[in-house]
Specification:
The structure holds 2 protein chains of 2 kinds. By secondary structure, chain A is mainly α. Chain A is 77% helix and 0% strand. The relative contact order of chain A is 0.17. The chains are: A mainly alpha, B alpha/beta.
Chain lengths: 169, 183
């Protein structure tokens, strides 16, 4: 925790990084607000999504957007310092957070698995429904995984910021 | 890596991509029910008995196939229950049927699911489970939910997923005096 706070203090000394944090937070907060309710709209994203927002979705969107904004700022700082940023866990966290509600109840998985099944019917079979059912019934767990991945990415990048130029590539 | 190895990998990759594209096209353009087509003959199970869909010939019906693990379906139950009085007044019969084997993933019974999301206003819905034949004919792609608006002549006038999002289309269909002619 101390590492993260110190890293953010270091980076936020510069106004450009404060602006970057704010703009990425706004962007990702809006993105999550529109995509999280898509499990209730059959994958449709738009103003219709906002009707299905509840307190838990707004809180989740807020938490994930704050984490992504901090990670983005640290990553940009590291890259501009000529250091290597940790991207894998951050990407994983963002993708899980966005795709879990999108894939749960939309037509994407049936179409993709249907096309795969036309090539390998015995191997694919009805696994599309199993996959979709699993996503739909394990949304809480999937969002927890997304948050854990984002926290991990935040810690990894903060550590690199604190280690400084020793990790320069 | 030698040149011929690159060529071999490129050829194999191209073959896989072409096969996947063929699969995608065959899925997208597979025999799927489209509006203006006569609703195929199929039965469903309600309270342990088998009923043919043709039993509702002469009535405007909404045939809705859904899985009880799907969030869109829960939102659909709520939206249809909210507009229940209007839909009923306009003479729309709602056939709320669980997909055959619940779309391949376990979940609650249809009555339990509907009662959970709308305890009172859905008592007049016809609830049950689709047979395998009905699922094959109406939901061959195994969508978590799909609905069909079928007119008095048994012609499919509209189809879609997520009734909560398209509730206005359903209301408009229920209000329509005469059915559109099939093309």
């Amino acid at each position: 925790m101390k590492t993260i706070i110190n890293a953010l203090k270091t980076v936020w000394k510069h106004s450009v990084y404060r602006c970057l944090s704010l703009s990425s937070f706004t962007l990702f907060f809006l993105l999550y607000l529109f995509t999280l309710p898509s499990s209730f709209t059959g994958g449709q994203i738009g103003l219709v999504s906002l009707q299905y927002l509840d307190k838990s979705m707004v809180s989740l969107s807020f938490v994930m957007a704050v984490l992504v904004a901090m990670i983005m700022t640290l990553m940009v700082w590291l890259i501009r310092q000529g250091q290597k940023a940790s991207k894998a866990s951050a990407t994983g966290g963002v993708l899980v957070g966005i795709f879990a509600p999108l894939l749960c109840c939309s037509q994407i998985i049936p179409i993709v698995f249907g096309s795969l099944a036309s090539l390998l019917p015995s191997a694919i079979g009805t696994s599309g429904s199993l996959f979709q059912g699993f996503i739909a019934t394990h949304q809480t767990e999937l969002f927890s995984v997304a948050i854990i991945l984002l926290l991990l990415a935040l810690y990894q990048n903060a550590r690199k910021v604190m280690l400084g130029s020793c990790c320069k590539i | 890596m030698k040149k011929y190895q690159y060529k071999f990998i490129a050829q194999r990759s191209m073959l896989i991509i072409v096969l996947l594209l063929c699969g995608l096209f065959s899925t997208v353009f597979a025999n799927e029910l489209t509006p203006s087509v006569k609703a195929p003959v199929a039965n469903f199970i309600s309270q342990g008995q088998s009923y043919p869909l043709s039993e509702y010939h002469g009535k405007k019906i909404m045939l809705w196939l859904f899985s009880t693990w799907c969030h869109t379906c829960a939102a659909g139950v709520k939206a249809l229950a909210d507009k229940h009085t209007e839909l009923q007044k306009n003479g729309l019969t709602i056939l709320a049927l669980r997909n055959y084997k619940n779309g391949g993933y376990p979940g609650p019974d249809v009555e339990e699911f509907i009662a959970h999301y709308s305890p009172s206003s859905t008592q007049r819905w016809i609830m049950g489970e689709a047979t395998e034949v009905m699922n094959d004919r109406y939901n061959s792609r195994q969508y978590p939910d799909i609905y069909f608006l079928i007119d008095e002549q048994g012609i499919i006038q509209e189809k879609g997923t997520a009734p909560a999002v398209f509730i206005q289309k359903i209301i408009d269909f229920s209000k329509s005096k005469t059915a559109k002619q099939s093309s």
